[in-house]
Write a structure and sequence with these properties.
Elements: H1 5-23, E1 41-45, E2 50-53, E3 59-63, E4 77-81, E5 90-91, E6 94-99, E7 104-109, E8 118-123, E9 139-145, E10 151-155, E11 160-163, E12 169-173, E13 187-191, E14 194-195, E15 198-203, E16 206-211, E17 220-225, E18 241-247, E19 253-257, E20 262-265, E21 271-275, E22 289-293, E23 296-297, E24 300-305, E25 308-313, E26 322-327, E27 343-349, E28 360-364, E29 369-372, E30 378-382, E31 396-400, E32 403-404, E33 407-412, E34 415-420, E35 429-434, E36 450-456, E37 467-471, E38 476-479, E39 485-489, E40 503-507, E41 510-511, E42 514-519, E43 522-527, E44 536-541, E45 557-563, E46 574-578, E47 583-586, E48 592-596, E49 610-614, E50 617-618, E51 621-626, E52 629-634, E53 643-648, E54 664-670, E55 687-691, E56 694-697, E57 703-705, E58 708-711, E59 719-720, E60 726-728, E61 732-734, H2 743-763, E62 770-771, E63 774-775, E64 780-781, E65 784-788, E66 792-794, E67 799-802, E68 811-815, E69 819-821, E70 829-832, E71 840-844, E72 847-850, E73 855-862, E74 865-868, E75 873-880, E76 884-887, E77 892-894
Parallel strand pairs: 2-9, 11-18, 20-27, 29-36, 38-45, 47-54, 55-58, 55-75, 56-59, 56-76, 57-60, 57-77, 58-61, 62-65, 63-66, 64-67, 65-68, 66-69, 67-70, 68-71, 69-72, 71-73, 72-74, 73-75, 74-76, 75-77
Antiparallel strand pairs: 1-3, 3-7, 4-5, 4-8, 6-7, 8-9, 10-12, 12-16, 13-14, 13-17, 15-16, 17-18, 19-21, 21-25, 22-23, 22-26, 24-25, 26-27, 28-30, 30-34, 31-32, 31-35, 33-34, 35-36, 37-39, 39-43, 40-41, 40-44, 42-43, 44-45, 46-48, 48-52, 49-50, 49-53, 51-52, 53-54
């Protein structure tokens, strides 16, 4: 057939185009009549060299263009485990499908993949596009599945003994687990072959089994985590995990005083019981330790220390009467194990003519009383009529520190009175003592000196009143919309002068309507409606505000603050805690803290939303909030070797009113019992600096790290030099802070605890104190009590404290007057042999000076004042009962 010239030119053009296509990358296949590009693999899922791949993964291969579905068949794709020992590679069976919408071929294995295994995927060059162009070469890639999770820790630990009966049992995993796989069938606790009923929960890589009832004492339990437990990739444990632990034996009462059936017991006798082991002091109280005559209860106080519980009747017992004492089976050791049954014993008091020692039954002021007036007459009441000649200035003493207060002693009825010659001083701690020189009319003396303390009120000037602090503070930001605005005054004000006319709030020129109230020395403005988002507000206290004597503020007091910008509904989270989850060896005076991802509404951070429990028992404490940190300060020391559970509930809200999505729960375990001479700071332990009258940073960028700063009865205005001084992971608390609620009470408790710790350190006698004097520089001292009857120095070299391998070793330095370290060539405190700064206590009878460049260790408990010279650093605490703490220049105080 003859081809026309036009057609000939057409086919020549086509052949040239095909030739060019061949030269510059056309598909090299046998389908010459098809046009188009080659199919290529654009991506795979999992990607090449991916690790940690889920076991139930569907393998996907995405192409650059649509494929011919007919070419997606079994022989087009394979998934294999490559044999590394010369054997045969293993093909993984599964189903191959194709999604034309996304140009994706998918392979679903018939069974979950093996963990921790490398797989090879291969696409064969038989798949083609819709024009018939085939994949030009096999496409091969590899990926590796994830590892099986493991149990990394349990609590109780494997083979541990003496565990609490109310113990929540936990298992921590090496990876995040699927919560639905952590349940009763995968977390099992048995006693022998008997399964224990309980509730299983899972939070933050930790599974918890909470028994429905207390465990049995002296019993071996077996915990099991089955292979049903799987991580978020669906990978189960490689094998079942089991461990065992034992509960502790029940404690018992081993002796009592008076003994059972004892006769002739003194009517002023304190009743005591000694236990076989340390007990949980919180369970020993007037409900569990009782005294009766017949069916009539005897009122009294119950205390517990050093294995011994003591019942002290409020008034002397009746003579020639039989009493029955009972220790109930509700008393428990720190592990939550109770005595097996009530312990009951009886005794009979002496006849009326028996000679007994008198007692001090009450005092005025009471022990640790606060805000005592300057003209107070100090009184002590006795259990018996006393010999008037023995109640005098030699047997009834009053001191302020080491200074004797002069006064007149009188006696009437059963009451001794001390009238100071001049008014007492403002805001100071006084110590009153009735000595054993005091005798009854029968000539019988007190068995021991009776000592108590009290603190006088802070004097108030008759000068012009001032605003000492506000809430919010000046220029504060991120203030909640429902904020109550408060101002604290230096004096008590006339409530009639604190009104909506003298306490105003404006946004720009717009007056905010609200209600003004006054209580104590605090005025409050409560807006009638929520404040606006991101608004700048100006609060004013005018000169119309007057004190009770009619003296007005000298000038208007004005401050500003800015509300928070409306937050989204994103729930805040707890970002970290101290102690961390599952921490061990936590100190018994620990302040528990939680840090949030957002600024929170302080009103929502309370004892209802931040709780601490030991088993099912709630721990009492004070909750405060500052910055983004909530703090829980237990009222009493924690028990040793016990697991505690802290919880932040969903009631905790950010400034927009959005709460946590779920309760945040974590646990920690306290350390073993402290040494007998350990000085327990209790709530005072949260402070790196604590003072009564002033805290100052004179120069430089000083830092207080991971501790708070507190002052009482001094006001916030007495804290100066912050900034440039900064507090890292802590806050300043002053007695006049209006918020957060409870600051004043918290500081009073801390001062009470500090005073008790000071007196304990001052009077410690076990082990027997070693007398020291002068310069201790260049010496090495073993653990113990070291007593100086005057001043003490560390000057001619460093002082080394050697724990000799005992990390719980304790040092107490009893210093009658001043203590000074001299920096330079010496003067630092060096720790060796495992010594811990937290276990070193410097009780100073007057003032302490930490010298230039000194590297100091330990807790200073000073009566009068503490000064840190230039560049002195401390791992410990600077705590003053009566005076001030001064940082001279660029000092550091770090939590021990």
């Amino acid at each position: 057939m003859k081809i026309s010239s036009t057609k000939k030119r057409f086919w020549q053009t086509i052949l040239v185009a095909l030739s060019i296509t061949t030269i510059f990358g056309s598909c090299q296949d046998t389908f010459d009549e098809m046009l188009g590009i080659c199919p290529e693999v654009e991506s795979t899922n999992p990607a090449d060299k991916a690790t940690g791949v889920q076991l139930n993964k569907i393998i996907a291969v995405t192409f650059n263009e649509a494929l011919n579905p007919a070419t997606i068949k079994a022989e087009a794709f394979s998934l294999r485990v490559m044999n590394t020992t010369g054997g045969i590679d293993m093909d993984i069976p599964g189903k191959l499908t194709y999604d034309a919408t996304n140009n994706t071929m998918s392979f679903a294995p018939n069974a979950p993949l093996a963990p921790n295994t490398t797989f090879t995927g291969r696409v064969e060059p038989i798949v083609s596009d819709v024009l018939g162009n085939v994949l030009q070469a096999p496409y091969v890639w590899t990926f590796t599945t994830g590892s099986a999770p493991t149990v990394t820790a349990t609590n109780p630990a494997n083979m541990s003994t003496g565990n609490a009966l109310n113990k929540a049992i936990t298992a921590k995993f090496s990876a995040k687990m699927k919560p639905e796989t952590i349940k009763a069938s995968s977390f099992i606790i048995k006693a022998g072959t008997t399964a224990i009923a309980g509730v299983v929960t899972y939070v933050d890589s930790t599974a918890t089994f909470t028994p429905s009832v207390d465990l049995l004492p002296s019993t071996t339990y077996t915990g099991t985590i089955t292979v049903e437990a799987a991580n978020t990739d669906g990978i189960p444990l490689a094998s079942e995990y089991t461990w065992t632990f034992n509960t502790g034996a029940a404690p018992s009462v081993i002796s009592v005083d008076p003994k059972d059936q004892e006769k002739g017991v003194a009517v002023n006798k304190s009743i005591s019981a000694v236990f076989s082991e340390m007990m949980d002091g919180g369970t020993i109280n007037t409900a569990s330790f009782t005294l009766k005559t017949g069916m009539t209860p005897v009122p009294g106080t119950v205390t517990y220390a050093e294995l011994t519980a003591v019942f002290k009747p409020f008034i002397p017992l009746m003579p020639n009467t039989t009493y029955t004492a009972t220790i109930s089976k509700t008393v428990k050791n720190p592990q939550g194990i109770a005595i097996t049954s009530d312990f009951v014993w009886s005794f009979t008091t002496a006849a009326p003519d028996a000679v007994v020692a008198p007692l001090v039954t009450s005092t005025d002021p009471t022990n640790n009383a606060m805000n005592v007036s300057f003209d107070k007459v100090i009184k002590a009441n006795f259990s018996q009529t006393m010999d008037l000649a023995t109640i005098n200035g030699a047997t009834f003493l009053l001191k302020q520190g080491n200074t004797v207060i002069h006064g007149t002693v009188t006696y009437s009825g059963t009451t001794a009175s001390f009238t100071p010659n001049s008014p007492l001083s403002s805001g100071l701690v006084y110590t009153a003592t009735i000595t054993t020189g005091s005798k009854s009319s029968a000539g019988v003396a007190l068995e021991n000196n009776y000592v108590w303390n009290f603190t006088t009120a802070v004097s108030e000037s008759a000068a012009v009143p001032t605003v000492t602090s506000t809430d919010p503070t000046n220029n504060a930001v991120n203030i909640a919309f429902n904020k109550v605005i408060k101002a604290n005054f230096s004096q008590v004000m006339d409530p009639a002068s604190i009104t909506g006319a003298t306490f105003t709030l404006k946004q720009g020129n717009t007056t905010v309507t609200g209600t003004v109230t006054y209580s104590g020395s605090t005025a409050s403005f409560t807006p009638n409606s929520p404040l606006s988002s991101g608004g700048v507000y100006t609060a004013t206290i005018t000169t119309g505000a007057k004190n009770t004597t009619g003296i007005a503020l000298a000038t208007n007091y004005v401050w500003n603050f800015t509300t928070v910008v409306s937050q989204t509904a994103t729930a805040p989270t707890v970002t970290s805690t101290d102690p961390a989850n599952n921490d061990t060896g936590v100190s018994l005076n620990k302040v528990i803290k939680a840090n949030f991802s957002q600024v929170m509404d302080p009103a929502s951070i309370t004892g209802a939303t931040f709780t601490l429990k030991q088993g099912n028992s709630t721990v009492t404490g004070t909750v405060t909030y500052s910055g983004t940190t909530a703090s829980f300060s237990p009222i009493n020391p924690l028990s040793p070797n016990v697991t505690y559970t802290a919880t932040i509930t969903t009631g905790a809200q950010n400034l927009a009113g959005t709460g946590l999505a779920n309760d945040y729960v974590w646990t920690f375990q306290t350390l073993s019992q402290q040494s007998a001479n350990f000085v327990d700071l209790k709530t005072a332990g949260r402070f790196g600096i604590f003072a009564a009258t002033g805290i100052s940073n004179n120069a430089g960028f000083s830092q207080i790290r991971n501790l708070d700063v507190g002052i009482t009865p001094g006001a916030r205005s007495s804290v100066t030099g912050f900034p440039p001084a900064t507090i890292i992971n802590g806050a300043i608390y002053a007695s006049d802070d209006a918020s957060p609620a409870g600051v004043a009470a918290m500081l009073i408790q801390a001062k009470k605890d500090l005073t008790e710790a000071y007196l304990f350190a001052e009077g410690a006698t076990s082990p027997a104190p070693v007398t020291v004097a002068g310069d201790q520089g260049g010496k090495t001292l073993a653990p113990g009590i070291y007593k100086s009857n005057s001043t003490l120095l560390v000057q001619a070299g460093d002082l080394t404290l050697d724990a000799q391998g005992d990390p719980n070793a304790v040092w107490i330095f009893q210093i009658a007057s001043g203590f000074t370290t001299v920096g330079g060539a010496g003067g630092s405190i060096i720790l060796s042999g495992g010594a811990q700064a937290s276990n070193i206590f410097w009780q100073v009878g007057s003032s302490a000076t930490i010298g230039d460049n000194t590297k100091f260790k330990g807790n200073v408990l000073a009566l009068t004042s503490i000064t840190m010279n230039s560049n002195a650093t401390v791992v410990g605490r600077m705590l003053v009962i009566n005076g001030a703490v001064v940082m001279t220049n660029t000092n550091i105080i770090e939590k021990p």
